[in-house]
Amino acid sequence: LGGNGGFGGGGMNMEDIFSQFGDIFGGGGFGSFFGGSGGRRTKKGTNLRVKLKLNLQEIANGVEKKIKVKRHVVALGVTFKTCSACQGSGQVKKVVNTMLGQMVSASTCTVCGGAGQIVDKKPAEADSRGLIIKEEVISINIPGGVGEGMQLSMSGKGNEIPGGIPGDLLIVIEEAEESVFQREGNNVIYDLHISFIQAALGDSVEVPTIDGKVKIKVDPGTQSGKMLRLKGKGIKDINGYSRGDQLIMVNVWTPTQLSREERAVLEGLRNSDNFKPDPGKQEKSFFDKMKEFF
User: Fold this and answer.
1) Least packed by Cβ within 10 Å: which of 143, 166, 242, 261?
2) Which of 204, 232, 65, 219 lies closest to 139 in space, CA to CA?
3) pLDDT at 235
4) Alpha-carbon distance 91 to 58, whole Å?
C-alpha cells in the first residue's frame, strides 16, 4: 500500500496508531512505550484501619464517636524541592531500541518514590520524608443499621505523603456481646419469662427495649412459645428509613421447688379438665410461628 494509507507513509507512525487506543486503555494508552507523555499518577498515602465496638443501642439508632488515631502527617516547616533524578515527573524513563523503533519504558523513581519531589529542609523530629507521627481526635458519624464486619471509610484521614494526597481511614464495625437481646437482621429478639399464674390469669409486665422500658399486656391463657411484636422497636435499615421490630418470645416458667401448701393446691387441680393440655388446631407450631415473624 502506498501514500498515507500504510505504515511506511508519512501520514501515520506507530505512536499515532496506538494513541488511538488511549480511551480504551486509559491515560496515555501506549504512549509511555513509544515516548508519549502519559502523565504522572498522583501518589496516595497508606490507609489506616481501626476497629470500633458498638453496643446494640448505638447500632440501632446510629451514634457519633470520637476516637484517637495516630497518623503520619507532613511536619510544619518542611520544604520540598524538585527531584533531580526524575525532574519532577515521578518516573524514570528508559529508551530501548527495537525492530519497531525506539520504545520507552517508565518506572517509578526510586529517589522520590514517585512523588516528584524530595525534602529540602525539615525540622529535627521529622523523618527523611518530612513526616511525623501525630495523634488526632477524629469524630465519626456512624449511621444506624451497621453490622458486624461492615467497613466504613473516611476519605483523607489516613497517612499523608509528600507531594500526594492522604490515604483513608477505614472503620471496621464490631458488635459488642449482648446479654439481653439477640439480633436477627433488623429485628431484635427478647426472651420474656412469666410464671404459670401470669400466663393463666394474664398480667401487665415491663420489658426492656433498645430505647428504654415499656409495659406490655399478657393475655389470660397465654401459651409458652407465643411471640409478641413491638412495631418499630428494632434496628434502623442502613439503606432506608424503615426500622425493624422487637419480637418477644414468651416462656412460661415452671417452678422447680414447691412448698407443701403449693403442692397440695396443685394436686387438687391435677384432674381438672381446664388443666389438661388441649392445643387444638388453632394453636400454631413453633416453626409456624417463626415463619410468620420472619
Assistant:
1) 261
2) 65
3) 95
4) 48
* The length of the chain, given as a count of residues: 294
Per the CB < 8 A criterion, the answer to whether 270 and 212 are in contact is no
Give the pLDDT of residue 284. Answer: 60
Name the residue among 77, 74, 191 with its Cα closest to residue 123.
77
Q: Is 14 helix (H, G, I), strand (E, B) or coil?
A: helix
Note the pTM of the prediction, 2 decimals.
0.69
Cα 154 to Cα 138: distance, rounded to the nearest angstrom: 10
CA separation, residue 154 to residues 17, 50, 157, 218 (Å): 42, 11, 6, 47
CA–CA separation, 255 and 9 (whole Å): 101
CA-wise closest residue to 147 among 90, 185, 187, 198? 185
CA neighbours closer than 13 Å in the CB half-sphere of residue 32: 18
pLDDT bin (cut points 50, 70, 90) of residue 291 is low
Higher pLDDT, 282 or 93: 93
Q: Which residue has the cell 507532613?
A: 74
Torsions phi, psi of 73, nearest 5? Answer: -130, 155
Calculate mean pLDDT across residues 37-46: 68
Q: Would you state the cell numbers that stand for residue 150, as one nine-digit string?
A: 461492615
| pLDDT-based confidence at residue 276 (cuts at 50, 70, 90) | confident
C-alpha 241/C-alpha 72 separation (Å) is 38
Q: What does the alpha-carbon distance between residue 57 and residue 175 come to, in Å, rounded to a whole number? A: 10
Average pLDDT over residues 155-181: 93
Q: Report the distance separating Cα 23 and Cα 31, nearest Å.
A: 12
Beta bridge partners of 70: 135
Once rounded to an integer, what is the mean pLDDT over residues 62-76?
95
**CA–CA gap between residue 277 and residue 287 (Å, rounded):** 19
